Amino acid sequence: MLFKNYRTRYAMVMDTRRCVGCQTCVLACKAENGVPVNGYRDWIVTETKGEFPHLSMEIRSERCMHCTNAPCVTNCPTGASHFAKGGTVQIDRALCTGCKACVAACPYGARYVHPDGYVDKCSFCMHRVTKGASTACVEGCPTKALAFGDLNDPSSDVARLLHSRTSKLLSPEEGTEPNLYFLV
Amino acid sequence: MKGKIVPVCEEEGLELLFGTPSEKIELYSQALADAGFDPLPEFTPPDEVPPGMFRLLSGRAPMHTFGRTTNNRVLGGLMSENEVWINARAARSLAGFEEKPLKSGDYVMLVNQDGAKSGPVKAKVTERIRGDAVYLVHGFGHTAKGLSFSRNRGASDSALTTRFKVDPVMGGTGMNVNFVRISRAEA
Amino acid sequence: MTEIELFRNSAPIDPQLHVWGWEIPVYLFLGGLTAGLMILTALAGRGLPRESQSRAMRLLPFAAPILLSLGMGALFLDLEYKLHVFRFYTAMRPTSPMSWGSWILLLIYPATILLGLARLSDGEMAALPRTGRFRGRLAAIVSRLRDIATSRAPQLERANVILGIALGGYTGILLGTLGARALWSTVILGPLFLVSGVSTGAAFMMLFRLGHEEHAMLRRWDTGAIGLEIVLLAMFFVELAANGGQKGQAAVDLFFGGSYTGPFWVLVVISGLIVPLAIELAETQKGWRPAIVAPVLLLVGGLALRWILVLAGQASI
Predict the structure, then answer these.
(1) How close, in Å, is residue A61 to chain C by CA atoms?
(2) Which residues of C touch B126 (CB under 8 A)?
(3) C196-232, pLDDT tens digit by residue?
(4) Which structural domain range is residue B16 located in?
(5) Which residue of B31, B43, C38, C115 has the smallest Cβ count within 10 Å?
(6) Do the Cβ atoms of B158 and B166 come closer than 8 Å?
(7) Is residue B156 assigned to a domain?
């Protein structure tokens, strides 16, 4: 899309093999970002396949994928949804009219309408990351199932995990090029 | 620091021994035999599930702590009511549901072998449980008025646990020994 | 068998998307109606002397800005942060149809009002109320504008047709770029909503007392538009089923056995398209007296089409 070449490319890697679905990431996020009761910036999905007793299960901690090719950004009429530092997708509340085109455009259901009248979603905790900390969900995760970092830095956690493990993306057919990878 | 240092781990010199006569894990326990119990654990089969009924199992959800947090609005947002899990194949041949098969989200009532009743609770038809048991997350179905959010949400497994069994050797209680019948909740 | 459990209840996206209620379909309907009205009023009165048109036909261009304002009112009600409505006009985002739309809407007001002034007869001009403090100056401005509009009538008509097509097409493309919803992710929605807009525009005009010739001409165009709309609807489903993959198939199933089957076939296809088409054909060929039934059915059908597509689109993944 418009601004593809970032020096840093923030991404998250989520290990579906380590996750136990305890929801600490969800509550850590809610506490850190003041997320209202009826809104979720991240959430847990469990996917069970097969018939009893031959079952397999995958547990995922999902959030905004900060897509490289983000349909929410292209469909925003005011520029409130925009690409920002490290290729992340951010929302400028002062520009948001609450028209909800971005909510309808997101294939991942990552956005919700904040009671104060703007659309809200995961920010990759940029307010923490710019101060050298990691995101609230990563720091809260008791099983170390989450990693956050710069994909363009080969020594970062995310780059090393992606090189050493098999990973997948959600709905790659949408062409959104998400930046949240799931280790399988 | 005063007193003798007591080693608490291997690195501090703790000897890894058990308090048994052989100081090892004992599969055959002379102590149990002397007390008149089976020296080797012997399998005692659980009671058969009566026809048309299900064994009631209960457990915890990760977001709630025992029965105490269901009234918390933030945690309640993650899970505001419990559902009764029932195997998909069992749900298809459930007595009393021949005309309209049970679907996830339908409200049902549970009645146990002693006539104890639950309030209406949502059914969850799933492959994630065996066919002769149903499962409830513990901590729901509160009746206290002060629990303004969680009151009357879901069903209480405690109310349906009218019987329990005691392990004759160590006195532990087994509570998954109750059986329930499922019927459609009146609207 | 796959079981998916989602541990959240995020309003208003769970259990399925329902961010858009009645406001958006009403706006899309009135927008399409305005588009049809602009195209048809511009074409119907093209090159004709004012006095040869019926009074209703001369005044109908003024209905366009009124209907559009009602639609924009509905759109405004949908905004979660109404004070920020001006933000649409502090940005131009070329990738967002909504941004294009908000600028197009601004151009429509002068285009339709000037076209209306150009069509106004001298008698109607003289009958304009002349009271109030600024009557002298205001009357002079209106009369000056009318002179300009009259001299530029062909350009105005062209502008109305082009803006009408842009508006009618945009109401469909607006949904079409939201690729995450299988039902909407097709370009056919643009032409479909445009043609439906023309048809509802014609129906709206036929509610008024038009001349016999004018009514016959509108009816002729309307029959064509309805026929084209039926073809486009069929193409819409074929395209979804053929190219939409599993999600597209699931979206199509909503209308063939799924929860929107009844309303869609009854309100949109049968009473909204086929019945009025038959009535209009009978009016043309068998000389039935034009009744109000067909236009009303068409308007209800046009609103139902958008209402159902907006709701069903949110229900499709």
Answers:
(1) 10
(2) 3
(3) 999 999 999 999 999 888 999 999 999 999 999 999 9
(4) 9-42
(5) B43
(6) no
(7) yes
